[in-house]
Amino acid sequence: MKSFLIIILLFLFADYNGQITKGFDGCKTNECKAKESFKISKYYLEIDSINLSQKWLDITKDYHPENSNNALSFHILSLQSEIFYYVGLSQFGNQEAKKAVKKAKILNDSLMIADAYFFEGLNLYELGKNQEAEKSFRLSLKFYPENPKKSLFETIGNEHILNNISQLKRTIGEADSALFYNQKAYNIALKKNSKRAIANCEQTFGEIYQLKGDLLKPNQFFLKSIESAKRFRNFDVALLSYGLLLKNEFLNPKICKDYFNQGEKLIKQQNVNLFFRRTFYEYALQAFEKMNSSEDIRQVQSKI
């Protein structure tokens, strides 16, 4: 009976994978294979399967001329920059973003230029180069068109740019400025129903109010962010908010441990990428160290 169930599951898995690659398998030209493999790479990134996303992006590169100047050549560079960001290789992500900026300028596409500067800013921010990151984010905002045309592949929105400027301002301790930019981002996200941006902005509100020393609003916004993120299936954002909650509750060991357990449950139930898992455990480690909980410290250290 057990063997029969395994055979059924393998059959269903193969059928599922077949549906994802159906367009690619039906291609007769390299151009078609490049475009379809890129779609698959984007799909896997959206569901946090980073390794598969990279695998299919490498396949895209095999079928697409490296020196070509078209929309797909730009999107390959942009996606590679994003993948490097998510796996913690921001030095390489920054290099790919700079190539994307040059490519976008050759194509004279303001939305692509905005997208490329955004990922340049994101990777610079992760490298701790805050002044350079802010410059890139502001260039992204400058080039973002008032009425962006539909792109062949999804690009960033101005709500994402504003939210990241807000996060940078929070990082350097400018709480009021961070609040200003995040409110602008949140208003746009709600108007556009930009799902990930909504959850991100709610999380950022919590971090800003934490910086301002508010005792109630941070947790209210972190919980709101978790609710939104789960509803929109952005489980990585939800996990990060669990980490922020437990870090904020280190004076209440029982509550802190409960948020930790909820975060671990989410990791077991959903496919959350390594970048966010590691950040969650780093937040947990900070909380457990403040609590002097040696057993929990050992448990978390083994997972970072």
Tell me about this structure:
The chain is mainly alpha-helical and 304 residues long. The chain has a domain at 162-233: Serine Threonine Protein Phosphatase 5, Tetratricopeptide repeat. Helix content is 79%, strand content 0%. Helix 3 (30-46) packs parallel to helix 5 (71-86), helix 8 packs antiparallel against helix 9 and helix 11 runs parallel beside helix 13. The longest helix has 19 residues, at 2-20. The protein starts with a helix and ends with a helix.
H and E order:
HHHHHHHHHHHHHHHH
Number of helices, counting only DSSP H or I runs of 4 residues or more: 16
CATH fold call of one domain: Serine Threonine Protein Phosphatase 5, Tetratricopeptide repeat
Structural class: mainly alpha
Share in helix = over 70%
Provide the residue-averaged pLDDT. 92
CATH uppermost class of one domain: Mainly Alpha
Coarse shape: globular
Largest sheet: none
Strand content is under 5%
Q: How many strand units?
A: 0
Q: Distance N terminus to C terminus?
A: 39 Å
Residue ranges: pLDDT <50 for 5 or more in a row? 1-16
Cα-atom radius of gyration: 21 Å
CATH architecture of one domain: Alpha Horseshoe
What layout of secondary structure does this protein have?
Layout: H1 2-20, H2 22-25, H3 30-46, H4 50-63, H5 71-86, H6 90-107, H7 110-126, H8 130-143, H9 158-171, H10 175-192, H11 195-211, H12 217-231, H13 235-248, H14 253-269, H15 274-291, H16 294-301
Helix pairs in contact: 3-4, 3-5, 4-5, 5-6, 5-7, 6-7, 7-8, 8-9, 9-10, 9-11, 10-11, 11-12, 11-13, 12-13, 13-14, 13-15, 14-15, 15-16
